[in-house]
Prior knowledge:
The chain contains 14 helices and 13 strands. By secondary structure, it is of the alpha+beta class. The protein folds into two domains: 13-119, Ubiquitin-like (UB roll) (Roll), CATH 3.10.20.70; 131-425, Creatine Kinase, Chain A, domain 2 (2-Layer Sandwich), CATH 3.30.590.10. The chain is globular. The relative contact order is 0.12.
Amino acid sequence: MSDATTGTKTGTPANAEQFLDAHPDLEMFEVILADLAGGLRGKWVARDKLATVLAGELKLPVSSVVFDSWGRDVEEWVFSRGDGDGRCVAEARTLAPVPWSERPMGQLLVSLDREDGSSNPLDPRRVLSQLEARFRAQGLQPVVASEMEFFLLERERDDIGRPVHTQQDSLGGVLGSGQTYGLEAMAEADSFMHGVREACALQDLPIDTLIKESAPSQYEINLIHQPDALLAGDQALLLKRAIRGVARSLERLATFMAKPFGELAGSGMHLHCSVRDNDGRNVFDNGTEQGSELLRHAIAGCLETLPDVMLLLAPTLNSYRRFRPGMHAPMAPCWGYENRTVALRVPAGELSAMRLEHRVAGADGQPHLVIAAVLAGMLYGIERRLEPPPPLTGNAWEQLAPSLPVHWNDALDRFRQSRFIAEYLGAPFQEVYTLLKQQELEEFARHVTPLEYDTSL
């Protein structure tokens, strides 16, 4: 059984029996829980225990979604709450084999709700689904697609721990250019690309295009848009997992680190977003190339709230290395038609596909939270009928001074104090995510870097 709109398996326990019958070789299942920092947590369960997971009988500590980037508890929060258990709620439409595993494995994505069955405001999937419900209450449905950039690197690092390019010149050094859109460069990575394509087909992840990006060893894979924001978030999360898994099986390393090389372009996660009404009509399309009032309202809301959500779009210390002059990342809230220098671009094309492209987030963002941040801004503007400034033409980097938070601590302060975050994403989420990122920031502050030794020792 499949959903006629998305082509994905619908989430009913009956599908589990059909799935097991179709995959008699699977021995174990990875039960995957997405945490706030972008990590994947969970348990392995035996084949004969899958039914108990689908029945909601698997438990994990509620703190499992609040680990930091190193898998540690957020100490200021966890023990004051007693660290009680939550109940795993399975998303059966994510049942899939894991083709890159050495032994037959399956996977299943879950959310972690409270023990009493109520929604957990700290689970990233719940944060997004509750925001999507606010759209639906107004007769609106977000449509979302993601574009994911990443680097494909050698598995082993060099003698001082730096990553090593897979795309090198004849002397073993990094190329001067990554051969943007280069077909020969793609052919050199054909085993990896075909591996990702085949894995996505098995896992029902609807990839659109596979691209060679501008930096050496850098690529991009795009997903087809979905009229289901939660599904789009799940697919982005599982695409990143598939890319990493296939790379690992080929003795390579795929990284979504925002800026692995200081002198090269970083990796972004661009989101394409539109909105449909109950009749399936794109409400951003009014029959003109300028788009509708609702499109302008959504753009205005995103621009006004962009500083507040920077911590979600750029969640790590490394994220902010993208926001430097000459690195092609937006540094000011601005928009324009068919302009890739702005933060929000309205692409050209069929009017029925009228949408905005949000170009700020790094590839290291947690997909559900990045989508939630963008949709919250859109809804904020739609509800308040905000109007944006005039669209920008020409080079935004030359016309506008940087005005977004381009340092981690500044973004953290803005997020912590934001009434918008509390209203649209929830005060409990705001509190805990602030504590989590504060703990990570303090960890980095304790470490002395090699550059400091070279400068001052």
